[in-house]
């Protein structure tokens, strides 16, 4: 198999991979051992993950960056205090419009912003703690007050207190992590 691999690739590719008969054989041996040992080494892993353990909430949000803006030439420059105040005012206006109309996308478009969506659970670090804390206080469809972080302003709406699809994905991730830890 190693010889067939070496014959199937040109010299440039083999040199880039540092592939020799010896290294390819060793890789194939180690890979085979890994494949054969993974299942027995992870067989006792608990694959039951409760909805509560993996629960994911879904939010929609818009971010207004207050640290950088673009000048006339399109270069990124630091914002002035006056610009920061204008950015905050714009964010507040979009939030007020979204709350009034209920159409987050349309409100964001007035400021040439896009509504992003995401999910998070109790142990995730993807979103700033302030965002998660604000979203945790909301009922589905409600907007949080303007959230200010070091980098900007967030408008946040809670879309779902329990997102089944994201929760199922998180369950798979938890089981995969458990298996990886057991294997390691």
Task: Summarize the structure in words.
- This protein has 184 residues and is an alpha+beta fold.
- 52% of the residues lie in helices and 17% in strands.
- It is built from eight helices and six strands.
- The protein has helices spanning 2-8, 11-17, 21-42, 51-54, 81-101, 104-109, 129-136, 164-183; strands spanning 57-65, 68-70, 76-78, 116-120, 147-148, 152-160.
- The strands form two sheets. A four-stranded antiparallel β-sheet has the order 4-1-6-5. Strands 2-3 form a two-stranded antiparallel sheet.
- β2 and β3 form a beta hairpin.
- α1 crosses α3 (21-42).
- It is flat.
- The two termini are 28 Å apart.
- 18% of the residues are buried.
Largest sheet: 4 strands, antiparallel
Oligomer: single chain
The rough form would be described as flat
Q: What is the SS-derived class? A: alpha+beta
What's the order of the H and E elements?
Answer: HHHHEEEHHEHEEH
Q: How many strands in all?
A: 6
Strand order of the biggest β-sheet: 4-1-6-5
- Terminal CA distance: 28 Å
Helix proportion of residues, in percent? 40-55%
* Average predicted confidence as pLDDT: 94
Strand composition percent: 15-25%
Q: Determine Rg (CA atoms, Å).
A: 25 Å
Spans of 5+ residues with little confidence (pLDDT < 50)? Answer: none
